[in-house]
Specification:
six-stranded mixed sheet, alpha+beta, elongated, 332 residues
């Protein structure tokens, strides 16, 4: 009887171990399946449909579920699943690498330029932005979600130092402003749901195109609108490839979004990427710099070199501000 009981207990234990391995294998398969959908869209060069555009913004963080899944497959002794996990890890590591062109301009330096871009979240971060502008002393300031109170505050507090401006007025998230120490002349902005003004700056006698970026975010049900507005920014960048250009703001997109990469493919370069800060999160501010996505960018044409990029934590806004130091070079 003891022998039969021992045999029954051993059989039960083995069944339990098998059940545990099956459970771990199923959990790993679910993790790998979800990651595979996102990585597959990245490989295919498409943004897909909800929830892929939202999740792909956090592509580097998919290393975590992939690593957990790989551990589970090893514990479950599912070697095919382990290969699946290793392939996913390799693809993620490949696509985490910076995207876009680099290289120094060939012409002589003609002017230095400091650019600051900040989304002040419905105007709530305006007081902190004013302090940051006074401290950082940028030449150009791109402000998104600058509603009527924000606009009035910037006029009152910064008009003496920044006498030139281009703005699209609006409430909530619709308003946007470009402030400049340098002379500006009017230029057509990019049409969008949210304000995206444009201008041409006189930088020591050199014309520089300025364009503020603030397309709609890829909310469920609005992904197509987000893609169209990023496409308009791409068309604007491609329309003039001979005039030096600065395209800055909250793009609601990272380098892992195909719609954003299409803007870089026009020849513009991400200033943060040029300084080695291409994966530094700017949103959401409450979890940065430990977790988040870089959706705020300063893109520049090949006439610019980027010397430094740094990020500012401002009170009362969900975005970090980005400050970049640029040098404009002439053409040979």
């Amino acid at each position: 009887m003891d022998s039969a009981a021992d045999e029954s207990a051993a059989t039960g234990a083995e069944d339990g171990r098998r059940g545990g391995r099956r459970f771990r294998a199923w959990c790993a398969g679910l993790l790998f399946a979800g990651v595979s959908v996102v990585v597959g869209c990245r490989v295919a060069g498409v943004d897909g449909v909800t929830p892929v555009p939202q999740v792909i913004a956090f592509l580097p963080w998919l290393l975590v579920p992939t690593g957990v899944g790989l551990l589970l497959t090893l514990l479950a002794r599912r070697w095919t699943g382990a290969v699946w996990g290793v392939v996913l890890l390799g693809l993620l590591a490949w696509y985490i690498e910076p995207y876009g062109r680099t290289g120094e301009p060939s012409g002589p330096p003609v002017a230095d330029l400091r650019v600051l871009t900040s989304n002040v979240e419905f105007g709530r971060g305006t007081p902190a932005l004013v302090d940051a502008v006074r401290r950082e002393k940028p030449d150009l300031v791109f402000v998104q979600e600058c509603e009527y109170t924000c606009d009035a505050t910037l006029r009152r507090e910064l008009a003496a130092a920044y006498p030139h401006r281009r703005a699209v007025g609006g409430g909530g998230s619709e308003g946007s402003v470009i402030l400049s120490r340098l002379p500006l002349r009017p230029a057509d902005g990019v049409p969008g749901t949210l304000g995206m003004p444009g201008a041409v700056a006189d930088v020591d006698g050199h014309a520089v195109r300025l364009q503020l970026a603030h397309p709609m975010p890829p909310l469920p049900g609005q992904v197509a609108l987000w893609q169209r507005e990023l496409g308009r920014l791409r068309d604007h960048a491609a329309a003039d490839r001979t005039t030096p250009t600065v395209l800055a703001g909250d793009f609601n997109a990272t380098q892992d979004h195909a719609a954003f990469r299409s803007i870089l493919d026009t020849g513009l370069r991400d200033a943060a990427r040029l300084t080695g800060a291409d994966r530094t999160p700017t949103w959401p501010a409450r979890t940065a710099p430990f977790f988040g996505a870089q959706i705020d960018h300063v893109l520049v044409s090949e006439e610019f070199a980027a010397r430094r990029a740094h990020f500012l934590d401002l009170a009362d806004t969900d975005h970090r501000a980005l400050v970049v130091d640029l040098t404009l070079h002439g053409r040979r």
